[in-house]
Amino acid sequence: MNEQELLDLQKMVEVAVNALEDIKAKDISVLETQEKTSLFARMIIASGDSTRQVKALANNVAVDLKEAGFEILSTEGDSGEWTLVDAGDLVVHVMLPAVRDFYDIDTLWGGEKPSFHAGATKPWHAAD
User: Fold this and answer.
1) How open is the CA angle 80-83-87, to the nearest 5 degrees?
2) What is the pTM of this model?
3) 52-61 pLDDT, tens per residue?
């Protein structure tokens, strides 16, 4: 990536993180993925407390990115348990905590497993 593309990517990540924080997303992780895949350069993973909040978070990300001049290629997942926003070089996953725990894409893509509730015992666990 050239310098301008990196600046655009940084701005895209900032807009998406701010959109998530506006609707009170939890456990926001930003992962650099350009060394692992050529499909996208950054991934953001966040949690919402309810299906309604997950949908609102994903919608807010898509709207704010569009308003900032970035193209949204697609959004997937209408159930509200897991919604993905594809903005080309940035992919945003918004999930319910139990779904996030089960699929554990944070560690799959080289990030750290989030410490839900600041280290407190999680009120859920992945299916055995």
Assistant:
1) 150
2) 0.82
3) 999 999 999 9
